[in-house]
Amino acid sequence: MEAIAVTLLIAFPVAGAILRRWTALTLPLVGWPLFYLGLDQGWWGYGLGDGWQDSAVALTLVGVVTTALLVGLARRFKPRRSDGLAHVA
Known about the structure:
The protein is mostly helical and 89 residues long. The protein has one domain (2-77). Helices cover 67% and strands 0% of the residues. The chain has helices spanning 2-19, 26-41, 52-77. It is elongated, with a radius of gyration of 16 Å.
């Protein structure tokens, strides 16, 4: 379970940096509730423990903030082309 949580903590911001779109903020907003739904349903792990709500909120907030930071940095340092074509060096 911890490996999945660490993977999600890393994957959401990285995906935001790659996508460079603010819609990437939906990843942690959807991903963390799905993670906890899976724990509750026994899809992975052994269910929810005491205080899971606090962890869910904290991880969602961390995910949204870190994803927003990386989207913002990616957009600042390499702006998306307006013509939709990739730059070929």
